[in-house]
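Appendix B. Raw example, untouched.
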Amino acid sequence: MRLATVLRNRFTPVVVAFAALQLMMLITMPAENLTLYGDYAYYYELASYSDQGKLPFIDYWSEYPPLFPFLSVAVYQLSGGSGGSYHSFVLALGLLMAAASVGNLVLIIGLARRLHGEEKAERLAWLYALLFVPLVYTWWSFDALAVFCLLLTLDLLLAGRERWSAVVMGLGVLAKLVPALVFLAVVRTRSWRRCAVYGLIAFALVAAVVGPLLAAGGEMAAASFLFPFRRPAWQTVWALLEGNLSTGLLGSPADHLDLANATGQGGVAGLLGWVPLVALAALYGVALWRTRLDNRPERIIAFVCLALVLFFLLSKGWSQQWQCYLYPLLLLVLPIQRGLLFVVGLSLVNLAEWPVLLSRGLNDWLYLTVPLRTAILALLAVVLWRRVKA
């Protein structure tokens, strides 16, 4: 495509402005300030173990799936390793996350055009570009990368490129488990043969990474993969039931060198650990049985959004960066005013929780923020259910 054609595209200004905003923030703000309330410093310290020849899943356990821990090691080494600095690490990783974030905007535009046409897609693009939460979490976490995998998986699926969609979903699962929720839509809209092929492709890709890591890391790798099921509840109603008012922070990076720290602990959420899992499976079963998607793009995206909200409602933990997965889907499937209302409401509650309250040690306020967030998500689940039910 010629440059003149690109420059005449009605979506070029919003994409350029969004990319320029992120680049300007990255190059002008001090690294320590830009990432103050996020996890970049935590990533940096973990990646620095590579100077000693230590790798995630093999020499220390990781709470994240394999893609990002190894990617952060590569970024750390390419940005100078022990001879570099935190600033260079933030610049390198920030450029990567900013690229993923811009990619998310481009994918949102493509999906919005498919669902709503050019005019509404342009409005949604500007609206998403102005949202604070996706922007700030570009510098606070790596979730922009997993969001990119989720949106690209959906985009390829709706375009009929199912095998490539399965490949991207497999990569997404290696970053975060959330992209796997797209498979529920595949089950609901495709024949069993096509579902089997889709699932086998994604599974084979994941197994090709997980298998060698288990062979090389043994107990350390096994503990890493099992840790999400073993960790105590945090920032949810389950955490409140067991009186746990701590955040999802896991201590210092040095704790990852000790396998004993990956075993988790009990409590009410531990004793009832199967209850939310069984409830979630039951709700997914009802959703698969009662929904009518008819292979329509807007219903498929709404269904994936519903699956995501149900997961958030019944998960034993909550991390603020999970908002980044939800907001693009909400803006795509709900009327603009209603979608924006949910986005702003959830953003205010979650930002009040972190960083406003929890960073100042005001953890007792979780008894307010957790029920508020849960109520909003429950209302959102009802709204989405009405859009997909038969």
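End of appendix B.
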